[in-house]
Amino acid sequence: MIAEPTFFDVNLAIDIVLLVMLLVVAGAIVRTRSLLTAIILFGIYSLVSAVWLVVMDAPDVAFTEAVVGAGISTIVLLGAILLTRGEAERGDWRRLIAPALVCVTVGGVLIYAATGLPALGDASSPVNAYVGRAYLEAAPNDIGVPNTVTAVLASYRGFDTFGEVVVIFAAGVGVALMLGFGPRASLAPPPQVMGDHHVVLRVAAKLLIPLIALYALYVQFHGDLGAGGGFQAGVIMAAAVILHALVFGLRETMAAVTPKVARSVASLGVLLYAGVGVVCMMNGGLFLDYDYLFPPHIEKEIPGWLLGGPESAHHWGQHFGIMLIELGVLLTVAATMVTIFYGFAGRSVDDAQREAKR
Amino acid sequence: MADVLAWIGGGFVVVGVALSVLGAVGVLRFPDVYTRIHAASITDTGGASLVLLGLCLISGFSLITLKLALIWAFVMLTAPVAANALANAAFGSGHKPRIGAFQIVRTDERRKTPRGTDAT
Amino acid sequence: MLLAAGAAGLLAAMAMMIVRAIMGPSHYDRILAVNSFGTKTVLLLALVGFLFGRPAFLDIAIVYALINFVTTIALMKFFRYRSLAQPLATRADEEARHG
After folding, report:
1. A 168-207 residues with CB < 8 A to B
2. What is the pTM of this model?
3. Which residue of A289, A306, C40, C46 has the fewest C-beta atoms within 10 A of its own C-beta?
4. Is there a single domain that holds both residue A233 and residue A304?
């Protein structure tokens, strides 16, 4: 009764409606000349994408899309618009002919190739029959973590995730080098603010900031069991710091989380991740082989009942390894997002004050 | 008993969604930012409360009920505050309301007149 | 079936919000549309979770209820003050500064 009706396919109907919404929003983004409108519409686009990913049964990806695409990305784009103009130039339509031909050709080839793909979720397709099934069957024995996505991401493909963390760290370093490290906390008092009355917002923010930070920790540690993990938790933690900066001013936030602390924590995350790998190597295994995280004689002394059964005693290294590297991911992602926000938001304060002195 | 509760929960969900749809129609058809903010925030909060209550009734008492209560608490905390902040910002930007006739007294002008003699 | 009707209604409401976001003459209309779209997305995620039998999607709904607020405040602050760094003062702060 409450389950899906039998006379038409709810899944397909929702898919079609969501894709039509994506198309309409994308068309509006392309047609508008005001970049500020485009930023707002990008937020809606990311939201619809997140819902679509949920409908397609990919909660981890939907999680990341919702928090990054509709949250941090919008805020960072706003910061970028502060440093540049708010309106796009009106282009000549004749310059678009060649790119349009390329797009249509490549898109046509891709659509033609897509007709040869197996159906979504087909159990006999190569992805699901060979590699996917191997992971699903081997993960409980090898790793013992209920969420297979986390098992693949953090253990089987831990080196790829290490590369992703280093890429995020490099992005933070690049932004810090290009935009400056944010104004120092000892600048002149903040510029005059108009006489608005924002008491409600301040009280609500004081209630919400610790809740958001706490929820980030929940997502971090719940990643082993459900959707979640280090990347999503890092972005949510950065959102808490950004909310503080938005409501109480960048100076206050920089006094609480100094730019130097942010950069150090980002480096610490990468160091932790690499350190776990090196410790594994020192104990006789390969880089990031968590079975060798603890020296062999310790593993024998851990009672198996702690992990639920004598055969799962060797999961101790896997559990600890995954927990440590997810912590490293959390530290790096949160600190990098905060550094990027400081870079963009702090720069405009600098410029405004330099203009005022002239 | 559980079946009756599930039907009642489903009823709540439908009523809540209908409220949200009414609010969306209001946002489309109202003439002005302030009235649209009214339509959107009131119906969003009320509709969300009904939908979440209906889902609680459908799912029975478990961890899911706790998570739904958390969603409800966050929506009740953030949606009205966001509406207030938005109306504040729109007013501060000089957005004049299109319906109703009243005199707009800006806050920095009000500071010049002593309290108790505000212009009405 | 009731949940499917609910999901359909929410999708219709979200489509109307998209129209307002594209049409809205002032930017505050668009911010309002995004905020309301976000709240409806939270409800839709909860409904879809129940409809497809996976209550684990509620985590995404919770996090989006929080992130929606942060984005709305950032947008509102940008359009009102053209800056992301100034603090949002209260009348008590103003009176303390001006005496």
Report:
1. 194-198, 200-201, 204, 207
2. 0.87
3. A306
4. yes
